[in-house]
Automatic annotation (TrEMBL):
It comes from Portunus trituberculatus. InterPro entries: Carn_acyl_trans (IPR000542), Carn_acyl_trans_N (IPR042572), CAT-like_dom_sf (IPR023213), Cho/carn_acyl_trans (IPR039551), Cho/carn_acyl_trans_2 (IPR042231). One of its GO terms (molecular function) is carnitine O-palmitoyltransferase activity. The keyword Acyltransferase applies. Gene3D superfamilies: Chloramphenicol acetyltransferase-like domain (3.30.559.10), Choline/Carnitine o-acyltransferase (1.10.275.20), Choline/Carnitine o-acyltransferase, domain 2 (3.30.559.70). Keywords: Acyltransferase, Fatty acid metabolism, Lipid metabolism, Transferase, Transport. Pathway: Lipid metabolism; fatty acid beta-oxidation. GO terms for cellular component: mitochondrion. The lineage of its organism: Eukaryota, Metazoa, Ecdysozoa, Arthropoda, Crustacea. The active site is at 430 (proton acceptor). This is Carnitine O-palmitoyltransferase 1, liver isoform. Transmembrane segments: none annotated. Belongs to the carnitine/choline acetyltransferase family. Residues 82-360, 383-656 form the Choline/carnitine acyltransferase domain. GO terms for biological process: carnitine metabolic process; fatty acid beta-oxidation. The gene is Cpt1a_1.
Amino acid sequence: MFIGSCQTELRVCQCLSGSALPGELSGPRDVFTGSYQAGLKVRKDENVREVSWKNKLWGLTVKFVSGYQPSLYSCQRSLPRMPVPAIDETLSKLLDSLKPLCSEEEFKDYSKQAQDFECSIGPRLQRLLYLKSWWAPNYVSDWWEKYVYLMSRCPLVINSNYYALDHYIWTPTSRQVSGHTSHLQLVSPHRNFHMHTLFTLLISSTLWWKGIVSWNQPTTPQQLKQITYLYSKALQDALALPNKTIPDLYCVSRAANVVHSILSIKRQIDREELQPLLLRNTIPICMAQYERLFSTVRVPGEEIDELLHFDSQESRHIVVWRQGLFYQLGIYDDKNQLLSVTVLEKLFQDIIDDADKHKDSMQTNPSHNYHGICVTVPVFLQVVLSDKVPENLSEKGKMLLHSDGRTLWCDKSVNVFFFPDGQCGLNVEHSMADAPVMGHVWEYAMTMEVIERRYLDSGQVMPPPKSFKPGNVTHPRRIIWDITDSLEKQINKAYAFNQKNNDDLDLVIREHTKFGKGVIKKAKISPDAFIQISLQLAYYRHTGRFCQTYEASATRLYQNGRTETVRSCTEESSAFVRAMVSSKMSKEELLQLLRVAGIRHQKLYRDAMNGLGIDRHLFALFVVSKGLGYESQFLESVMRRPWTLSTSQQPQQQIQANTPDINLEPFRKMPLLT
């Protein structure tokens, strides 16, 4: 699974094999006077993390207070407020980050400006931030949402919204309308399979399914090895086949299952039954962003947009897009029950049939039409039933990120996109929640397809138990728009601008299966640091210079925490890159420089997670200065510096091994699926 977004001059996509464990990038925390401090201890003779007795005691206290099965928001009040960093420390760290980027003269100028700022208006702005931190849940998150997201006048497409892929090379079903069905089919975005290879794949996949997924028949290491070998060999044979055209088929079974999973997760969120995430199964993190994840829409304004969120009593339907037509589909029956998967499958099929019938005309059936923009605003989410199959990963990413300029409803919090070959993905609006939050929900939905038998051997969805008594269901209604000539001109103008903007994007997703996190860890280097330093090396080889680099980090250890910036271009990483390019040092010397750069990067990442980063602090100081009418040349120059590289952390595993009640370790260790 991959989540990506494009926000700067150079867009970087990371698609690496391997999955991370919760809290892999952060060490244990000691607690002093209600705040988190870094408490990582590393043995000198090996790369092993120890937990201090204070951490253990605090962890037991958290477990006792939160209960055996804590509710979603049960730890919110126990979270500390994010501290305001000391202004001298922020300025010192800022100057350190600018050293590899500036000439000697430029650096002297920045140093003088920083000193003048610290001796003039800096302390006054700092005192106001201290004051806000005492009464506000978070001293910067509300300003970040308002000024960075809602007041941004850049198009949401490719600039703010992000996308997410599903399983890279595996889909649980490719059940099609035309009746061509298969179960647990491996799908390459480049190829189709011959029948004999597909037969081999089905046999091996069935063995894998029964051996790995069935919790009633545990798999021994020897059986797992045999299953993995057969599975791998069949996959290699399939990938060696020549390209073939993928037939134009539509997958409604997977759409029904995935949408039903998301609806079930939303119900858990509403009931606060979704368990809160704990780093290392001990440290709680903020779960506030889950509240607005669904049933939220961004309403455009002239100077600032507005986020509207609807509760479950108001948001009782979804919008389905097909062939340029929009349909309203209720998600509850007359007994106030969520629609079953089989009912959703049938209703999606009805929508496809109706849309394909009327795609070239505007014929309407008055009994099934619904007029008015007010219908679409409080919807739960939008579902896109596409009729186009992406040829490769890069095209799939583009279709999810900006599509054809007509399909996605980018003001809606979540768009779920389904392709004819069974693949799917997301497009998510960014202002209401950050990517790890939606990534958690998406990972949960994808995991349920693996650990639960949700499809029959025919590829159709598994029917509900006989004890389930469905109620009456409302038929989907096509939405008809009242478009004037003036509005049509504006739509065409916006579409042309959107297409021009999207055409300016170069998005390439590369397959990387040579190695994963395990190989990097054996070298005693943080995988995240390894990737970030690799990006610095690649950029330097390409341009001959270093650039200001943005890596997103979470500050959810604190109330209403969102993100912080890790400035991954450091003096240590620059020293390694120069040595690597010069080819004058031995491998041992290069490895030592790489490890030093990795340790430095880990320090920056932990500081960011602990609220000791610099960029949100500088941003908050800038907002206060503007609010008071102060002009600061120093803050202006710092805020104007461009982020040439915008990157993200490595993929992280957020679903626990015992959630749901099944051990997923064998599945995680499958070499072709991790």
